[in-house]
Design goal:
This protein has 127 residues and is mainly beta. It is built from one helix and eleven strands.
Length: 127
């Protein structure tokens, strides 16, 4: 069974930082792209960042939405089967529910490319 469990959300002032965690089923953690998405109230869910294996070697490529590039960093801890999203210089526009998701078949950054989703964690950035 594929499971993704997010944690780490909260309330932070503008300019602050948060780190989100996503614990992923060990069976897919090392081989499938894992992405972070967010959904603000009244808006569609959007891509934030993703990490995917580069070829057959041990390295992973990282991908970011333009709106978060340079402020957010995606990383992993293989021993804990956990993907992190370090968020810095947070702004009110970053407010929303953040989801991690697994892409089982075809690489992509669209919501429809991802097959399994966590329950989400709320991030609120106040002015």
């Amino acid at each position: 069974q594929v499971q993704l469990v997010e944690s780490g959300g909260g309330v932070v002032q503008a300019g602050g930082s948060l780190r989100l965690s996503c614990t992923v089923s060990e069976a897919i953690f090392k081989n499938k792209p894992i992405g972070w998405f967010r959904q603000a109230p009244g808006k569609d869910r959007e891509f934030v960042a993703a990490e995917a294996k580069s070829g057959s070697g041990p390295h992973y490529g990282t991908y970011y939405a333009g709106s978060v590039k340079g402020r957010f960093t995606i990383s992993r801890d293989n021993a804990k089967s956990t993907i992190y999203l370090q968020m810095s210089s947070l702004q009110p526009d970053d407010t929303g529910v953040y989801y991690c998701a697994a892409n089982m078949y075809n690489w992509g950054t669209a919501v429809t490319d991802y097959n399994y989703w966590g329950q989400g964690t709320q991030v609120t950035v106040s002015t």
